[in-house]
Amino acid sequence: MKLTVIGGTGLIGSQVVGKLNEAGHEALPAALSTGVDLLTGKGLDAALEGAETVINLANSPTFDEASLDFFRTSMDNLLAAGASAGVRHQVVLSIVGVDQVPQLDYYRAKALQEQLLRQGPTPYSIVRATQFFEFMDAVLSWSSDARTVRLPATRIQPMAAADVVAAVVEVATGAPLGGIRNVAGPDVFPLEELGRITLAARGDARTVVTDDQAGMFAAVEGDVLVPGPDAHLATTRYRDWVGEAR
Predict the structure, then answer these.
(1) 24: phi > 0 → left, psi -120 to 50 → alpha, else beta; which?
(2) Closest by alpha carbon to 10, among 134, 106, 148?
(3) Whole-structure pTM over 0.70, yes or no?
(4) pLDDT tier, 246 (very low <50, low <70, confident <90, very high otherwise)
(5) Which of 81, 75, 89, 65 is nearest to 39 (CA)?
(6) Partner of 111 at 20 to 30 A CA spacing, among 35, 61, 147, 216?
């Protein structure tokens, strides 16, 4: 099977390419560094030539309102190029609860990406994942100083990037879902608790202070970032992962 992986040189994309090729498929990474520009369409036709499936893992360079234009333009270009190339399956990686947090620009942009995919000409699948373990360092940095880390009590059910990769590969090599598959880790945490676990595992003496106004996830209400009972749960647990990642 020939697949083109848009954003195939990033954290998830590079692993998806490797896993597909190890399984005997032909996976081509497509990114700015390989000569593919989603915003202008440059290099797209060549990258999609002969591909049965396109996996879209591209990300906006910003998380603000500009991300709406990025996803609108990139999806329009990718769907048009895919239809021209005869692509039979378009796969997008999205976020659990993405359509429940309209107050966040980036989440609205990803919801728009999903909408454009649904309205497009090609059979599709959407993989919605929860927050990655690997992003905890960034989350901790948003509202911290030398002594404290301020985090809200927002509940999340994070998962390892390697488990996201496995989920994307499974969906991409199967028949189009024509809908959404939610994937998540096995455990739910208040974000503040996850912060304490992370700092303790790394020997960081800073104190986590509960602050429901701190950071991007402060805008999230209720359990919208926790998937429902239909979610496919991975097995890697955060406490095990963070201990090994020290």
Answers:
(1) left
(2) 134
(3) yes
(4) low
(5) 75
(6) 35
